[in-house]
Amino acid sequence: MSRPVRRRLLPIPLQRVRIEGGLWGERMRVNREATIPHVYRKCRETGRTGVWKLLVGPGRAEGRSHQFWDSDVAKWMEAAAYSLAAFPDAKLERKLDDLVDLMAAAQMDDGYLNSHFQLTAPANRWANLRDNHELYCAGHLMEAAVAYYEATGKRKFLDVMCRYADHIDRTFGPDKGKKRGYPGHEEIELALVKLHRATGEGRYLDLARFFIDERGREPKYFAAEARARGEAMPPWAGGLHYWQAHAPVREQTTAEGHSVRALYLYSGMADVAAETGDASLLSACRRLWRNIVRRRMYVTGSVGSSAHGERFTFDYDLPNETSYAETCANIALVFWAHRMLQIEEDGEYADVMELALHNGVLAGLSLDGREFFYANRHALHLGPGGPSGGGFPPARQEWFDCACCPPNIARLLAALPQYVHSESDRQVSVHLYAESTAHATIGGEEVVVEQHTDYPWHERVRITVRPPRPLAFTLALRIPGWCCSPRLKINGRAVGLPQLARKGYARIKRTWHRGDRVELTLPMPVERIEANPHVRSNAGRVALQRGPVVYCLEEMDNGADLNDLALPRRAALTAKRDARLLGGTVAISGAARRRSQRGWRDTLYRGDPSKTTAARIRAIPYYLWANRKLGEMLVWVRKC
Amino acid sequence: MSRPVRRRLLPIPLQRVRIEGGLWGERMRVNREATIPHVYRKCRETGRTGVWKLLVGPGRAEGRSHQFWDSDVAKWMEAAAYSLAAFPDAKLERKLDDLVDLMAAAQMDDGYLNSHFQLTAPANRWANLRDNHELYCAGHLMEAAVAYYEATGKRKFLDVMCRYADHIDRTFGPDKGKKRGYPGHEEIELALVKLHRATGEGRYLDLARFFIDERGREPKYFAAEARARGEAMPPWAGGLHYWQAHAPVREQTTAEGHSVRALYLYSGMADVAAETGDASLLSACRRLWRNIVRRRMYVTGSVGSSAHGERFTFDYDLPNETSYAETCANIALVFWAHRMLQIEEDGEYADVMELALHNGVLAGLSLDGREFFYANRHALHLGPGGPSGGGFPPARQEWFDCACCPPNIARLLAALPQYVHSESDRQVSVHLYAESTAHATIGGEEVVVEQHTDYPWHERVRITVRPPRPLAFTLALRIPGWCCSPRLKINGRAVGLPQLARKGYARIKRTWHRGDRVELTLPMPVERIEANPHVRSNAGRVALQRGPVVYCLEEMDNGADLNDLALPRRAALTAKRDARLLGGTVAISGAARRRSQRGWRDTLYRGDPSKTTAARIRAIPYYLWANRKLGEMLVWVRKC
Question: Which residues pair with B476 in a beta bridge?
Answer without folding.
Answer: B429, B507
